[in-house]
Design goal:
single chain; alpha/beta; TIM Barrel; eight-stranded parallel barrel; 41% helix; 14% strand
């Protein structure tokens, strides 16, 4: 009984990305939400929303009590290029309406591709400019934009923003409570970053943490990272939020999550 109770508490520390997890429940997001709830989870995440049945998702969230922790601003555009900014801001407005309908507190944003031949500072300034405007659109709401750096070594070779430190710099420059950093530990570790070193002084600017093991982007415990240690480090720094499970499972979802839960503290 004690082990089951402890596992349940740990399970509540996790949020699952439904693009990759609980796929056994079916192709629709609503069925995956219900499967997550049955496994004792109370938070889930998705990527884009335009291809999904929002009404069905809303009903599944309401009937299970599960929270949709994040979704992505759709469309994702090249924020380093000012020519995309008006279209992007329209997407922020549309995505905000969906986030509010589904009671999601977070919208994920990425910088998009680097522009060859354009000075890096010019591209950095373009990202700051559009995110300043985007954050202003969220004034009066309880929704936060989460800026996510991506690794350029394997998954996103053309991404402009791959550095956690530069991501934090953007957050500070925008200076809005509606913009925080999404620390995807998988991407950070792929870039050989030390999590404690890069976010320690700025943990209050980290709005969410996602994880996957390396190599392979599978569940923690399948690769080379000591996740019990990394989870403990982040908690020790003051991160109190859920850990987003954004990985490709090597086994059935429930089994993989039960193993991950045993690593959290």
């Amino acid at each position: 009984m004690t082990n089951k109770t402890d596992e349940g508490v740990r399970m509540r520390d996790l949020a699952v990305n439904l693009e990759w997890l609980f796929t056994e429940a079916g192709d629709d997001t609503a069925s995956r939400i219900r499967a997550a709830a049955e496994h004792g989870l109370n938070a889930v995440e998705i990527w884009g929303w335009r291809d999904k049945e929002i009404a069905a998702i809303e009903d599944a969230l309401s009937s299970t009590g599960v929270q949709l922790l994040s979704l992505i601003v759709d469309p994702q555009l090249q924020l380093t290029d000012p020519a995309t900014h008006e279209e992007y801001l329209a997407g922020v407005r549309d995505s905000l309406a969906v986030a509010q309908r589904l009671r999601s507190p977070n919208l994920v944003v990425v910088s998009g591709a680097e522009r060859p031949g354009v000075p890096r500072q010019e591209q950095h300034d373009a990202v700051v400019s559009v995110l300043t405007r985007a954050a202003a659109l969220l004034d009066g709401s309880d929704v936060t934009l989460l800026l996510e750096p991506l690794n350029t070594r394997v998954d996103h070779p053309d991404a402009f923003l791959s550095s956690t430190l530069e991501g934090l710099e953007v957050v500070r420059e925008v200076g809005s409570p509606h913009l925080r950093l999404l620390l995807d530990a998988y991407h950070a570790l792929m870039m050989d970053e030390d999590l404690a070193a890069v976010v320690g002084p700025d943990i209050d600017l980290v709005g969410h943490v996602q994880v996957a093991d390396i190599p392979g982007r599978h569940e923690p415990g399948t690769g080379t990272v000591d996740w019990a240690h990394q989870f403990a480090v982040l908690r020790g720094l003051g991160y109190a939020g859920a850990f987003g499970m954004e990985y490709v499972p090597t086994t059935e979802t429930r089994a993989s999550l039960t193993h991950v839960a045993s690593l959290t503290r």
